[in-house]
Amino acid sequence: MRFARPLPAAWGAPPATLLLIRARAGAEDSRASSPVATNPTPADTTPPQAEAPGLPRLSAATGAPLQGTCDALLGFSFPNTVISTATAAASGSLKVAGKDVGAHCVVTGKMNERVSPVDGQTYAVGFQMRLPLDWNGRYLYQGNGGTDGSVANATGAVGSGGPLTNALYRGFAVISSDAGHNSSQNPMFGMDPQARIDYRYGAVQKLTPMAKALIKAAYGKGPDRSYVGGTSNGGRHAMVTAARLPQEYDGVLANSPGFDLPKAAAAQLYTAQQFRKVATDELDLSTGFTVAERQLVAQKILDRCDALDGVADGLVQDVEACRTAFNIFDHVPTCSGARDGTCLSAAQKTAIDMMYAGPVNSRGERLYATQPYDPGLAGSGWAGWKFSNSVGASRDPVVVGIIFQVPPDPTVVSNTRAFAFNYNFDVDYPKLFQTNATYAESAWSFMTPPNQTRLDALRDRGAKMIVVQGVSDGVFSIDDTKRWYDELDAQNKGKAADFARFFRVPGMNHSSGGISTDQYDALEALVNWVENGIAPDRIIASARGVGNSGGANGEVPAAWAADRTRPLCPYPLIARYNGSGDSERAENFSCK
Fold first, then answer.
1. Distance CA 561, CA 314 (A)
2. Is 331 in the active site?
3. I need a surface site. Which of 274, 356, 434, 487 has the fewest CB within 10 A?
């Protein structure tokens, strides 16, 4: 069976939206010969582009010193809140990219402790808050990833594909939480309906007013500017917060966001089913698409699509043109004999293409988005999601079977592989949308942003949103995020870019990694947009790979300059080589 590579109408922009996007693209193209760097490097110093007029301008934050001592915060009082510790952290006790994080207070506690009437477990929303002694007037809610269950260090590492910097280092007050359950309760907290809701959006709703009150107690004033950000499920938290709490946050940063997580997790089970068909060992799904075979397909994609952006550099910037330029059936050799890494069997091609096309039920209805072919499929992060997490004991099977569906099935933990292989998209998939007397809200209702393309309240008060995602995200489809943005743009009559921008990272896997320039600072771009009115017409990303001390991405090809940079362009624009100058440098690319 062959699936057409162009995006199905159900997942692409409606015709009116496309016209609006193309019109805006043409307008932006006229100024693309001197693109704007939100976080300029010495070689990229184009004057910043002010945001479009018409929306309110939010003022910049102003700092304040801590009033009193850290241990005085033990006396902080807020309804249903217990402060457990309040201690001082010396400058340099935490570091980021080899730099000392300044002195700060570390406050830990919990909110809304209760005993569940459903499973008898004791639940609470645990949190950690870090408050700089020299505060810059900003607050960040740090959304954490996965199924949560532990309180990560509240450093605010939400704005980069790698460990470049964090919000605490910059002087933000930062909070993180366990989202309402502890690690020993994973994934069985899905048996408790309130724990489900706290994981989805309840924890943010409870913690936000408490955190702002704690900031006021510490500094004598509340935050001037409030931000929310995270990666993966944390990115979903950010997008949900934009919809549910638009008056509370001035800037939203969603990295690799799983905003349609129930559908995406179910799609992972479909992935497992496809690779099971061609795996030589069903206990190791990677035998269905080996490293050598993935590298073969990646090279064939590059052969067809790499130079479409003006330079052959190991990255496919023109995602849309590649949809028609590459076809796995026509452009990858078919094995005439045994598989040896230089070809794919006909069955493999069908299985892989079905996976890229996305899950369907027996009526042929598409249940999640397509995914574009991209050479980042050679990355280890892509493989981990497709071959391990799709059948693993801590990821997609238990998330779908215990945390998302109604009623939950606690027996899934005993054989997650069987659950994934036998998942029925006619019978089981509808359970993501079901309710009953105990579980009054479905996973689809509490996990996803309500009215996700109607962010009018966020827009009208001058708040801003940045979404960044890898094209080769192994779990959340970049096409789904594209569909979301197309619909948001249509809802805003082609002017979504006035307050929300979406950046694709070619080759990047989920959150980071892959054959990509995956190091970028989107938090700085967001602050500059919110407080200075500098719209992010590009964000500079670097490789920082092999050969660069302090580099984070070991998958960067040795042939790339270790300090390679590229502009990440706001969709629908793409980075195109200008035709002259060092192709390793971002300043020689334009967003067109």
1. 12
2. no
3. 434
* CA–CA separation, 11 and 287 (whole Å): 31
Amino acid at 364: G
Bridge partners, residue 134, by sequence: 65
C-alpha angle with apex 113: 144 to 157, nearest 5 degrees?
15
What is the spatial distance between Cα 23 and Cα 110, in angstroms, rounded to a whole number?
50
What secondary structure, in 3-state letters, does 217-251 show? HHHCCCCCEEEEEEECHHHHHHHHHHHHCCCCCCE
Contact 550, 270 (CB under 8 A): no
Going 172 to 61 to 503 to 99, the CA torsion angle's sign is: negative
Q: What is the rounded distance in angstroms from the CA atom of residue 423 to the CA atom of residue 401? A: 10
Q: Phi then psi for 573, rounded to 5 degrees?
A: -70, 155
Residues constituting the chain: 592
> What tokens does 403 get?
């945390």
511 and 232 in contact (C-beta within 8 Å)?
yes
Three-state secondary structure readout of 426-471: CCCHHHHHCCCCCCCCCHHHHHCCCCCCCCHHHHHCCCEEEEEEEC
β-strand partners of 177? 127
Asked if residues 142 and 174 have their Cβ atoms less than 8 Å apart, the reply is yes
CA atoms within 13 A on the CB side of 322: 25
- The residue annotated as part of the active site, out of 44, 250, 473, 521, is 473
| Residue 537 to residue 32: CA distance in whole angstroms | 9
Instruction: Report phi then psi at 429, rounded to 5.
Output: -55, -40
Find where tokens 């990858």 sit. 332
**Encoded tokens for 108:** 């830990």
Place of tokens 């067109």: 592
pLDDT band of residue 490 (cuts 50, 70, 90) is very high
Query: Which amino acid, one-letter code, is at 456?
Result: D
Q: Is residue 31 pLDDT above 80, yes or no? A: no
Catalytic residue among 510, 518, 537, 590: 510
User: How many Å apart are CA 149 and CA 195, to the nearest integer?
Assistant: 11
The two three-digit tokens of residue 247, written as one number = 């008056």
Task: For residue 439, name the pLDDT band (cuts at 50, 70, 90).
Answer: very high
Spatial separation of the C-alpha atoms in residues 270 and 424, rounded to whole Å: 9
pLDDT digits (tens, 9 = 90+) for 101-121: 999 999 999 999 999 999 999
Q: Are 298 and 332 in contact (CB under 8 A)?
A: no
Q: Phi-psi region for residue 399, left (φ > 0), alpha (ψ -120 to 50) or beta?
A: alpha
Concatenating the DSSP letter of every residue in 301-348 gives HHHHHGGGGSS-SS----HHHHHHH--HHHHSPBPSSS--SS-B-HHH
Instruction: Note if 232 is an active site residue.
Output: yes
Can you tell me the mean pLDDT for 571-576? 98
Structure tokens at 282: 């069903």
Sign of CA dihedral 135, 136, 137, 138: negative
Taking the C-alpha atoms of residue 346 and residue 327, their distance in angstroms, rounded to an integer, is 13
User: Catalytic pick from 160, 177, 226, 232?
Assistant: 232
pLDDT at 192 over 80: yes
Smallest CA-to-CA distance from 459 within 116, 52, 165, 20 is with 52
Classify residue 256 by its DSSP letter. Answer: S
Q: Give the predicted TM-score (pTM) of the model.
A: 0.90
- Please indicate whether residue 91 is annotated as part of the active site: no
Task: Round to whole Å and give the CA distance between 138 and 529.
Answer: 14
Q: What are phi and psi of 163, to 5 degrees?
A: -80, 65
